[in-house]
Each structure stands twice: as C-alpha cells, then as structure tokens.
Amino acid sequence: MQEHLAIRLRRKGHQRILKLFFGRSAAEDGRRRLEQALHDENIVGGVECLTMHAAALRYASVSMGEQLLDRCVDDGELQKAIGEMLGDAIRSWHGEQPESAPAHNRKEARAQAARRSKLVAFYIFKTLVSWLASKHDEARLQQPPAQFDDITYYPAKIGHKEKLPHCRSSEPGDWYLKQAYRAWRMMLDGQLPLVHDAYVKWAQLRGMELSEFSAILLDEAQDCTDCQLDAFVLQPSHADIFVVGDMAQALYSWRHAKPAQLASLFEPQSYGRWYYTLHGQLKNTGTHPREVKCTKLRRTFRFGPDICRVANCVLYVKQHSEQSLVGKRLWTPYRVQADPAKGGRVVDEDGELTAGPKTLLGRTNLELALAGWRELARDPSVKIAILGDGEAAGGKRFKTVFGELEECLNLYHGEKVRASSRFAEFESWDDFKQQVNQRELNQYHMHIHLVGAYGEPKEAPKLVAMIRKFDECVLRAGHTASSADVLLSTVCQAKGLEWPRVQVLDDCIPIDVLHVIGDADLGDGKGPCARVLFQPDYECGDPSKKARLDWKGDELNSWFVAVTRAQEELQLPPKFWALVKMAEAGAPVTDGQLLAWDRLINPSPARVEEAEQLLEGLLEVWYGTEGGGGGGGGGGGDDDDDDDDDDDDGRSGGDMTGKGKRSGPRLSDVLRQAKPRRLAASLH
C-alpha cells in the first residue's frame, strides 16, 4: 500500500520523501519493493528508506559524538556498567552493611548486599530507559516527581521498604530520577556505554534537520515510543506526515511503545485531561497548527471469510475488554473485512492441515522448541527451519540458550558453576529464579522451564539428549524457510509476513475469561459503572491465584497477529476453541471457566445477563452474522444463510442451525445449577 502512496506523492511534486521503518529487515525489504515500484512507474528515486534509529543518527542537528554504534551494548551490559559507575551511591542507598554482620553470617550478608545492589542498578536502568522513550526533556529528571510520576520504574515504588529494608528513605522519591540523570550525563561524557535509544533521544532533544524532505511516511506507528512520535511526527512541522499502523498489532509495550497515541489521532484535544492527545498536539503546535485526517483501512487481501471470522472474534474480545474503556483506550475498535474472492478454511479442533509446508507460530521461543521436538518425534526426517537472523532471534537464539543449559543444569543440581559463567552470580537455583523475577531477566524463562521439566535424572538428564537431537536435526541441518517442511516463528518475528498454512501454538494468553470490572469509585463490581468484560488472564481467572493480566494489550494483540498470518489454512489451538465452545454453549464449559465465573454471581446475579449478551455478540461474530452481514467479517463476504452441517467448513462442532444464535439453557440457569458442583469439587 505504501509503495502506491509514495508513487502518488512523487507524481504530485514531492521530490524527497523519507520512509521510516520500525526494524532493519523491514527497511531493507521496503527499500527493495519501493525501488521496484518506482522503476515500474518510470520514476527515478526520491524516496529514502531508513529505520528511525538510522534517521536519528544521520539527521540529528547536533552530533552526539563519534562511533556511537560501537559504543552500544545490550541491556545487561548497561545495567552492569551502571552498577559499577554508580556503585557508591547504590550501596549508600540500599544501606546494607555486610561487614558489620557476625562472622558466621558475613558471606550471606555480602551476597544479600550484592543482590540488592544489582536490583537497584536494574531500577536505575529501567527509569533511564523509560525517560529515553518519553518526550520529556532533561529537566524532567532533575525535578521532584510529579503527583503522577510516569518515569520512575513502577516496581521501584511498590514495596520499597520490603525490597530495601535498610534504605535510609521510606519512599524512593526522586532518587531514581536523579540517578538516571547522572547515568545520562555519563553517557554523554563517554563514561557509560549506550543503548540504541540513547541517540534517538539525543536527536529528539536537539532536533533533526529534515528540511530536505517534503513528506515523511511512518510505518508500524503503533510500535513507536512518545520520543519517536515527537521526533518524527510532531517536530517536522514543514512536511506532510503519513502515519500508518494497526493498534491491534502493537506488541512492544515493554519497549515503551504507545499505541494509545495512535488511537488518539481520532480524538481532538481535550483540555482538562491529564494527558494530551496526539491529534490535539498536531492541531495546537505553536505557530504551525496541522490539519489531521484519519482514514481506516480495514479490507484485507490476504484471506477469505472463514479466517476473517477468527480475526474478528479476537477483535471482539479486545473491544469488550478494559483495553477499550474510555480513559484506558489502547485502540480504536474495528472489524476486518475479508476478500470475498479468497477461499481458505479454519481447521477444526480435531483436524489437520493439508499436506505441504506449514508455519508454526508461538508466543515464546520455549513453545517453538517444544513444538520442534514434537515434530521430530512424529517424523525424524522432517525438515525444520527457524525464522529470524538477529542475535536474539531465530537459530542464534536457540544456540545461545542451548549452549548455556549445561551450566544451568549444574546450578540446578547444586554443582559448582564456572567462575566465567553468567550463572556464577547466583547463589543457588532458588536465588536464580528469584532474581529472574525481580530483575525481569526474561531471557532465562526458557532455561528455567526446560531445566525444571527435563533436568532429571542428575546423572543423565533427559534435556541433554533433547538438545543434542534439536541441534543435529534443526540447528546444524541448515534448512531454510523456503526449503523446510516446518517453519518455526515467534509471533513477533511473523509480523508483516504471511504463509499458506499456519498453525497457532497454545502458549498465547487464555481469552475465555470474563470478569466484572468494578465501579471506578467503589471497586466492588456493584456500582452503576460496573460491567462484565473479557479479561485475558494467564491464570485463567482462577480466584485462588494472583491474576496475570494483559494490562497493556500485547498478549491479546499477539492472538490477532498470529491468526492473521494465514492465507489458505489456519489451525487454532485449544485455548481458542475454549472461547468458541463457551460462546456456542452460552455457558462455562470447562472447570476453569466455572471457577472464574463464580465472580459473575457474587457481585450481582444481574451481571450474568450481561455475560449472556456478551456471548451472544461473540457468537454472531463467529458465524459472520454480526450487524446482519454474511460470513465475511464486518458485514462483507458470503451472504449465504443456508444451514451447513459440513464439518470441513472450519467451524467447531455443535448445532449449526440458526447462525448467530446459541441453543440450550440460559447462562444464568446453568451457573445456578453448576454451583453445587463447584462446592462439591472444593470439598474433594
């Protein structure tokens, strides 16, 4: 689509256009496609394709220094450097005095002090990167924190005295902000290494010289930070700016992406709010107010009506979740419209994809590894490839993890770990797991699961043989994406790509969880503003466990990205079919759903009626009858209303008569009848 936009702009007289991409591979692919499209139209150049980071390096008004890329390190290295350069301040802050401990406890006291130093260094790092991603200037780090402090890393403010019991202050106050400022100044002075977002921040603060471009095209805008939006959308007031993105495909909140800003393009400025919308800032920017026009592009040319229904079910769940509430809105709800000329099918729960190459999509590398082992167990001769060529992706990521698992097994079994190993800093396996949780060392989640599940027996762990097989049959085999029978890809790596046959693995967040969202004032689910909504939860809504919710939308968006990669065939995991069965039954159909739905009755039995209506709406989307349309999604596609009992049409079993209408008892009756069953189960 943007190739056509670039061609139109060139024909309208734009001599220099800057096309910005989120990642390097996307920029390289975009450059090739644009060059070909321009050549086909006999247009000579005029469009420069860069990542936002490359543009910041090239066009910063003031140079940040020499050899900036050579100074960049990964997050772990920067945290280590912060711990060393700010070590005195960190130790003074957490207040541990290991040398004052009794001799028999001194070793443990030193280890405890070291752990707290690393934790504080981590909090400084997270506060720094939060500021790097923001639109705030350097003065923001030097001021007392405002009533709403959106820069200091949130976990550093929660349970402060429990985490740092000997700290001299009862609250963190502005301490982390000040240390982040010190770290920033050290970066500028060359005393600390950089992360790549540092030179983007520099360009945003000092400004960029983009006057040669009369138009700027920004792709994947849902993944932009406030800093990037300010630098490339708000500041270049001389240029026509074209912002393209899909808020339902935002996956990078952990990088401080702000899809809500893209959603705010549909909202004019609202004074009196604590925040300012992107729309409002564009229209009220100094002496250069901008005209804002919004266009929704909803039709897909990738797949037909059946796959489209699946995508719209995910969008329905998102629309009826907290992610769409006013004041919390992370997106502007919409529906995808299918290409009625395309076929395709959704493989039912017990079905299989047709013969031919297939792509397996997982949320995590762990699930991809497990899927790879399952494929090898089914057919040892299968050709498997892994998508991705970065240091932290694809085959390189698997080689890194598998190369570290030997030392990880030693730690697990209480054996000595090499001093040079990255696991040497951990006192024990329990200490390792605790620090992974506290310091968000997410790169080790795969290690913990594999070692915990397959690390026995100590003399010959099953994991060793599994790694050897994966290494021989997958990593060393060298199969490419084009030659493989099975391609493994994370959902993040799959963005922007498509394949004929796709199987979605079952490690995405459960989406069949309903919850009463409480009144804003009472918070008890009984107030006039309370309502029943979907609440995706990795703990399936189990009230006996601490919920792991999708606060920022990435997990639910992963579902949408995954189910929209297929062109011809889509095989869905059990978690999706649990949602469909719940809608078709109009009632909880699993023990997990029964447990979670207790909370519908407890605040108010009237909430059950809301749940019934919510499921009725979902069922209409599933059968493609939402809004009176056919099976094409969003009112488009097949208008055939004939009954169809063919199991091959991609629908999950059940009575297919009366599309969009469930049969059977009402949800409220089922819940009341099911309550004795729940009580009996609790007694056992």
Would you write up a description of this structure?
This protein has helices at residues 2-11, 24-40, 52-59, 68-71, 75-85, 87-94, 106-133, 139-142, 154-157, 160-163, 175-188, 196-206, 226-234, 259-263, 278-283, 305-319, 365-378, 394-412, 429-438, 445-454, 462-475, 491-494, 554-563, 574-585, 591-601, 606-622, 667-683, and strands at 17-21, 47-51, 215-218, 240-243, 345-347, 358-362, 384-386, 486-490, 499-504, 514-517, 531-534, 566-571. The chain has 27 helices and 12 strands. α3 (52-59) packs across α12 (196-206), α24 packs across α26 (606-622) and α25 (591-601) packs across α27. It is globular. β3, α13 and β4 (240-243) form a beta-alpha-beta unit. Strands 5-12-9-6-8-7 form a 6-stranded parallel β-sheet. A 4-stranded parallel β-sheet has the order 2-1-3-4. The chain has a two-stranded antiparallel sheet with strand order 10-11. The longest helix has 28 residues, at 106-133.
